[in-house]
Amino acid sequence: MQVKEEDITIIGRVLCDPKRDLPSRFRALFTLRNIGGSKAISQINNCFNDSSALLKHECAFCLGQMQDQDAIPVLISTHATKSELPNYLSSNSLLEDENQEPIVRHEAGEALGAIGVHSEELLSLLQKYCNHPIREIADTCHLAVNRIQWLKTHGAKENLSNNPFNSIDPAPPCKEDNVSKLYSILTNADEDLFNRYRAMFSLRNMATDKSVKALAAALDVEGALIKHEIAYVLGQMQHQAAVESLTKHLQDSTEHAMVRHECAEALGSIATEACFELLRKYISDSEPLVRESCIVALDMCEYEQNHDFQYANTLTNLKESTV
Ligand SMILES: [Fe+2]
Ligand SMILES: [Fe+2]
Question: Could you give all domains of the chain from N- to C-terminal order, each with its CATH number?
Answer without folding.
Answer: 1-157 (1.25.10), 162-323 (1.25.10.10)
